[in-house]
Q: What sequence folds into this?
């Protein structure tokens, strides 16, 4: 029977090798890769059948020869065992090349508790467990994200990466063979290798793993699909300002700490030099389709997309957020940049600029679709990832990918997981019929984005920004004003290049706070648009005049708002807080327009402000400047 099965497998293998893409009855994505995977599976099955035939033949020979006698080891048996060992060696080598799926399934089996380390691992964060190659670990909890809770022989517990583990086998030879041949590789969004955990954002990933119990509960009660996870990028934003736009706006020092890397003065033009970068483009979020709906047990407060630069291992930029809009008749479709009366809120603007000077060949844009929710039964708030997609920005030859529309299939889990689907009930691997495949493909959640190349004028504008930054196109002119004022203060007006004294400049001291509060950025946009409409053509061409006017507009609009006690603190996805903040902002802007400035409002006894703090006026560039990071 085994020989018959092996013959059928070999026939299917030969037929598969003769197949061509043109023979497929319907379009198939990643045809070559899928064909190669199928061929590897068939070859592996053929080898296993061949091994089974040898074992059965050996068992029959042993039974006929040694009935009623004690088994003794003779040269012939040793030869057979030698052949079997060689067969096992070949199978082990082939399984490494073909990424043995059966071994992975056995490793993921909840009943398999003992694992052996196939490489050395040093704890990079608090809560990790250090272990050495060959050490046997007892697994207590196998998390879906690939970071498992393990215990060593000393009773110490911590998180360990799944990719450093193999099923523990008591056979010493098999153990030594595994130690010699298994290569430790963490699989990421695009298959790149994770060499070392050195960045602080790994703690956010670990925290997301630890909080996956919440997602498991929601998935169990049917509130969310199984592919949803705690949002990785929102965890990064909560940890501090390292992944916020305000951090990347600050000037970066050179390795010598004696000059600024991305801020250089052009004395001929009396402004800062433009800085061309390797990545400089515009990405437009068009729509999200077939996004699974959460259950009635949770209330969705916000639907949004968070995006950042990513190399399969590390986040290389700030995390930028764009809120989506949707219609009750079609809640599975998200759209961006809706038509509104007046200016479009920057939070809804789907046009984003992307800049980076990273030399990584794997750099791309990571998109994470998310929802902010509240559980009706408990009132608990949280943020879930509804899927993610990765768009690589350079080909294998190092050429930029073409500027066009991309329809990206969404993956479930986190960006550090592979093979997880957003909603397993509509698996893209289910079914084999052409019609069924077509219907299934139409049901898959996708993100539609467009990459746009830049005109020469747009490049000149973007080149005045920091080397690494993602933001909304609607407030790019405000960022450039800030950079020019920053250049004046640090490079032109400073007494000497060695001076480290505090700089009295309210805009430099407070503008980074605005970038992380979209409604205040919209207030500044609105105030500047109102003033710009009154300018003459000659005034619009005078950069020094525009800069000085921007300072006045800033002082008359958002600067007083930052110190007002009437303005509630900015809170993400809280409708009441957002509405009350916008009411305070709108009332203040209206009174400033009526009174031709904010002075009368500031002197009014009806208004109260926070106690004066020197931080409102002083800019400490040594305290604010970014540390040099070779990876960014």
A:
């Amino acid at each position: 029977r085994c020989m018959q099965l092996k013959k059928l497998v070999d026939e299917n293998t030969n037929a598969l090798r003769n197949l061509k893409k043109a023979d497929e009855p319907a379009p198939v994505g990643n045809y070559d890769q899928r064909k190669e995977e199928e061929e590897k599976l068939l070859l592996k099955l053929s080898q296993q059948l061949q091994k089974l035939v040898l074992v059965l033949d050996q068992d029959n020979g042993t039974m006929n020869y040694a009935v009623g006698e004690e088994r003794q080891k003779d040269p012939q048996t040793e030869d057979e065992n030698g052949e079997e060992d060689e067969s096992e060696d070949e199978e082990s080598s082939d399984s490494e090349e073909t990424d043995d799926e059966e071994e992975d399934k056995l490793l993921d089996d909840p009943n398999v508790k003992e694992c052996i380390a196939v490489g050395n691992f040093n704890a990079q964060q608090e809560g990790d467990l250090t272990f050495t190659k060959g050490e046997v670990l007892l697994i207590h909890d196998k998390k879906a994200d690939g970071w498992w809770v393990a215990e060593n022989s000393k009773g110490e517990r911590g998180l360990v990466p799944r990719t450093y583990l193999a099923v523990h086998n008591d056979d010493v030879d098999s153990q030594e063979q595994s130690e010699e041949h298994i290569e430790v590789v963490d699989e990421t969004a695009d298959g790149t290798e994770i060499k070392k955990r050195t960045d602080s954002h790994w703690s956010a990933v670990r925290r997301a793993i630890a909080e996956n119990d919440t997602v498991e509960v929601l998935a169990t009660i049917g509130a969310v699909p199984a592919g949803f996870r705690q949002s990785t990028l929102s965890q990064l934003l909560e940890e501090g300002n390292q992944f916020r736009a305000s951090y990347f706006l600050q000037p970066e020092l050179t390795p010598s700490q004696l000059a600024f890397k991305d801020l250089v003065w052009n004395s001929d033009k009396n402004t800062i030099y433009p800085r061309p970068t390797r990545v400089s483009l515009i990405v437009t979020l068009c729509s999200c389709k077939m996004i699974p709906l959460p259950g009635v047990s949770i209330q969705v407060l916000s639907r949004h997309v968070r995006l950042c630069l990513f190399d399969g291992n590390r986040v290389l930029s700030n995390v930028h957020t764009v809120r989506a809009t949707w219609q009750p008749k079609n809640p599975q479709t998200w759209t961006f940049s809706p038509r509104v009366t007046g200016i479009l809120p920057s939070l809804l603007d789907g046009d984003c600029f992307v800049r980076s000077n990273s030399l990584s060949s794997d750099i791309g844009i990571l998109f994470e679709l998310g929802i902010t929710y509240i559980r009706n039964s408990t009132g608990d708030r949280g943020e879930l990832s509804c899927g993610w997609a990765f768009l690589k920005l350079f080909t294998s030859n190092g050429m930029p990918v073409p500027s066009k529309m991309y329809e990206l299939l969404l993956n479930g889990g986190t960006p550090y997981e592979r093979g997880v689907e957003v909603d397993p009930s509509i698996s893209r691997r289910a079914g084999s019929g052409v019609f069924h495949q077509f219907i299934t493909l139409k049901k898959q959640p996708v993100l539609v984005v467009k990459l746009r190349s830049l005109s020469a004028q747009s490049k000149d504008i973007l080149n005045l920004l920091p080397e690494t930054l993602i933001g909304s196109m609607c407030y790019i002119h405000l960022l450039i004003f800030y950079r020019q004022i920053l250049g004046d203060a640090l490079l032109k007006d400073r007494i000497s290049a060695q001076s480290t004294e505090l700089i009295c400049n309210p805009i430099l001291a407070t503008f980074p706070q605005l970038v992380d509060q979209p409604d205040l950025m919209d207030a500044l946009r609105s105030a500047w648009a109102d003033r710009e409409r009154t300018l003459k053509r000659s005034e619009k061409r005078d950069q020094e005049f525009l800069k000085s006017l921007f300072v006045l507009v800033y002082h008359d609009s958002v600067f007083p708002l930052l110190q007002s006690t009437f303005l509630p603190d900015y809170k993400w996805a809280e409708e009441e807080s957002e509405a009350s903040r916008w009411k305070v902002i709108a009332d203040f802007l209206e009174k400033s327009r009526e009174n031709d400035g904010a002075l009368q409002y500031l002197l009014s006894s009806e208004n109260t402000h926070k106690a004066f703090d020197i931080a409102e006026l002083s800019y400490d560039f040594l305290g604010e400047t970014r540390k040099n990071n070779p990876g960014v």
Observations:
- The first helix runs from residue 2 to 18.
